[in-house]
Write a sequence for this structure.
């Protein structure tokens, strides 16, 4: 429930369902015992108390543990057995993750001029980050930045293959929509997997997992201008650029992709291999009940308002 646009109702391509399918006979239905929901709606408030609710966010939103029994998110926190940190990029195709892990392994005969004929890529649809927009504008003052998204497009229309597009470029301008500790989306991972040097802004704690020597981390510099001067320095010195490209994407000692996926599987099995009632965690009594009832009323009010706006608009 309440997932992002384009999410398949059956969820067959969804990593969570793939894991559960290996262990259980899973039925996606309306009258469910377990409800997975995200941050793109309020309909989850109306599910019965008997349901175990599991929140999974792809947006910069922390879990409300009064709304869910368990949560999959990005925050650096521990909350008993109720939360697992599993950033959004872990739910993307395994091929992309593997390319990221091995991106620094340049084969013999790899040629920079042949592999990277273009300067910098930019693939964005959301225009609402003024800092990102400023970075694009300022970098274009040095050299043209190829914008292949819906926003500020200058390549004749949105690109159909982001990986192929980014792979032709030495750099990728990849700013998150916002900055929050732990919130790392697919943007940095896609750029690394395309074997570019990302110009990254977003998660202030990105250095807990990722090797900041492998990209230009804007927050490590005194200003945006200073970070972009570093980009120019790398662009003008092939040996210096290649030294950054040969840096591994991840820090030594962090869990491997296999270990992270195994951790998610163990966490899910711990929920589902116990009786339904034993898996309940959210407060269903007194103030917990009052809180949930109030949110259900507010959600219903919002639905009515939206319906009225549509009717008035007609």
């Amino acid at each position: 429930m309440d997932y992002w646009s384009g999410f398949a109702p059956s969820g067959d391509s969804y990593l969570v369902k793939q894991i559960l399918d290996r262990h259980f006979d899973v039925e996606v239905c309306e009258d469910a015992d377990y409800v997975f929901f995200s941050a793109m709606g309020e309909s989850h408030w109306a599910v019965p108390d008997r349901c175990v609710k599991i929140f999974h966010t792809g947006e910069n939103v922390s879990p409300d543990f009064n709304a869910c029994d368990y949560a999959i998110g990005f925050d650096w926190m521990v909350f008993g057995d109720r939360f697992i940190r599993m950033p959004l990029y872990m739910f993307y195709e395994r091929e992309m993750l593997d390319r990221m892990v091995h991106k620094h392994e340049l084969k013999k005969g790899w040629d920079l001029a042949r592999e990277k004929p273009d300067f910098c890529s930019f693939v964005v649809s959301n225009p609402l980050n003024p800092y990102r927009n400023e970075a694009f504008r300022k970098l274009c003052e040095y050299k043209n930045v190829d914008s292949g998204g819906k926003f500020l497009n200058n390549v004749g229309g949105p690109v159909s293959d982001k990986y192929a597009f980014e792979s032709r470029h030495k750099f990728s301008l990849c700013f998150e929509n916002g900055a929050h500790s732990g919130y790392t989306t697919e943007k940095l991972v896609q750029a690394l997997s395309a074997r570019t040097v990302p110009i990254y802004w977003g998660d202030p704690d990105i250095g807990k997992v990722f090797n900041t020597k492998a990209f230009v981390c804007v927050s490590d510099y005194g200003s945006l201008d200073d970070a972009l001067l570093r980009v120019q320095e790398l662009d003008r010195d092939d040996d210096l650029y290649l030294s950054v490209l040969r840096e591994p994407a991840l820090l030594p000692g962090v869990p491997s992709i296999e270990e992270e996926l195994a951790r998610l599987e163990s966490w899910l099995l711990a929920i589902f291999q116990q009786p339904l009632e034993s898996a309940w965690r959210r407060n269903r009594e007194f103030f917990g009940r009052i809180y949930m009832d109030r949110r259900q009323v507010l959600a219903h009010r919002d639905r009515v308002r939206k319906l009225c706006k549509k009717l008035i608009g007609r």
Notes: The mean pLDDT is 95. The CA atoms of residues 224 and 288 lie 45 Å apart. Strands lie at 34-37, 52-56, 70-73, 83-85, 118-122, 145-147, 169-175, 197-201, 216-217. The two ends are 28 Å apart (CA to CA).
